[in-house]
Amino acid sequence: MTFQKRNKKKILQIGIALVVCVCFIGGGIIFAMKKSEKAVKIAPVASMSNGGWYSESDIYDYAKVQAGASQDIYHDDTLTIKEIYVKSGDTVKIGDRLVAYDTTLAGLEQEMKQMEIQGIELNIQNQKAELEQLKNAKIVSSVERSQDELRKMTAKGTRPGIIRTADAKKNEGENPDTSENPEQPETPENPEGPEKPSIGKPFPEELKNKIIYKEITKDAAPYNEDGDGTKEKPYRYLCAPGATVNAEFMLKMLEERAVCIFDVVDQEKEPTLLLYSWTLDGKTGQVIKPENPEQPGIPEEPIIPDEPDNPGGYEEPDPGDADGMTREEQAKQIQEKEQKIKDLDLEKRTAQLELKKLDKKVNNGVVKSTVEGTVKSVLDEEEAKLENKPVISVTGKNGCYVIGGIAESSYDKLKEGMTVMVTSWNTGNSYEATITSIGNSPVESMKSSENPNMSYYPFTAVVEKDADLSSGEGVSISVDGLSGDSGNSIYLERMFIREDGNRSYVYKKGKHGRLEKQYVEVGKNMYGSIEIVSGLTMEDEIAFPYGRNVKEGAKTKTVESLYDYN
């Protein structure tokens, strides 16, 4: 064997040995890393959910029995009594007319609430259009942004669109270009002008210091000082999205037979658009909606007038106007815009609930007797208001009744004539009762201990006379489909839920026992515990979503509870 062959063989043997060594060491490192990977603790949702702590019934869970079914009709600020059909001592049957209301004012409120909802919907459209623009915005790096800022600083003091003469360039140390035509401005190859708003028209500069109202009261001042309430010079008010007009203001306008126009802007602070306008005609009692509220007259692009130093009428955009944004800026603005849309959607749902109550007032202009008995008293409307007593009070001949409460969120689900179950706390016996009336105003004494912001509206349910119930006895009321059982609901403390933009998620045990991100739909917030509407089941296992090892694909270890997760 030659010297050269012996060297090649030796080199080959060393190479193989090195490869084996590296593989062994590398495998050992990988094995050690896998062995040192710390498992993330997970626990069953069933043990972490505190949904059973809360009562989610849409029906207020306590009432007292009152002997002798009765009916009381109280003063309502938004309804004016037109006619009373009974007097004290009269005998009435179920269905007899008691009082009729003039629903003109409630009808106006109803129409304005519809306009309010349309305004919110229009604002949601506008916000969604801006969100799409953000998602499609030009993205630049931080380096490019710095260069843009430098260009802006360099351009400062030089008016865009103005052509400097050759003498001016010479004085500034530049080489004059005698071939340049001083009569034509330097126009960029692809100028990018400002985009038109997708909905509405630009907010007038002269209105920027005027008051924008969230609620129009009788003391609200119109922004047009020359307005006199006529059709030619109506009072004009600037309104925030979702603004309301109270009953006192409407009565004042009806009495004065005044015409008002409400100009709705896109946002209360620093508005940029006038979305649409609508009119309240106090002479006819009508609300006049815009002809086309979804596209309320978008003006054409304004033409910049010619100036001595800008003969072509073109003004070059300021450097950086269309330069785009960084990825971080885009993400932040998208998150803010999505939250705005979420808030507007909540406003819309609240307004829709209020509209349902107004619908009921307008449709129930005549109140009928819900009991068979005797008219106990009939008071003057003003007297009843001052003394907080019923305008009309009717006492039933027999039987007993209970005053229950229906949650605001389910107000429209309860109907007169429905059957409810009344269960005695003393005996445990249950009896059927019939709903005879549902109130229009919430009862202050009925409050949810879990959700103090929840309002309950009263309803009267009459129990058959042969029921073994005593006056003053405590009972529970249940209605099929409304008395929910919270035992199967999932409520997790906020710390177990993370957010990704406007989406919520948890970490749960996935395939092969590895951790995975699970998006969930959230609902009610009960003292810091969030309802999980969908995305999780009681059988799933979740992790505390923070920590170095918490990431998709991490190993998991099941424990009984995560409240001791150290």
TrEMBL record:
Entry GO terms, CC: cell envelope
Residue ranges, compositional bias (Basic and acidic residues): 324-340
Residues that span the membrane, as ranges: 12-33
Primary location recorded for the protein, binned into one broad class: other
Domain YknX-like barrel-sandwich hybrid: residue ranges: 72-394
Biased composition (Acidic residues): 303-321
InterPro entries named in the record: BSH_YknX-like (IPR058639), UPF0194_transport (IPR050465)
Cellular localisation: Cell envelope
Renumbered residue ranges of the record's region Disordered: 144-204, 284-340
Keyword annotations from UniProtKB, A to Z: Coiled coil, Membrane, Transmembrane, Transmembrane helix
Pfam families (UniProt xref): BSH_YknX (PF25984)
Highest taxon listed in the record's lineage: Bacteria
Coiled coil start-end: 98-137
Protein name, per record: HlyD family secretion protein
Species annotation: Coprococcus comes
Source species taxonomy: Bacteria, Bacillati, Bacillota, Clostridia, Lachnospirales
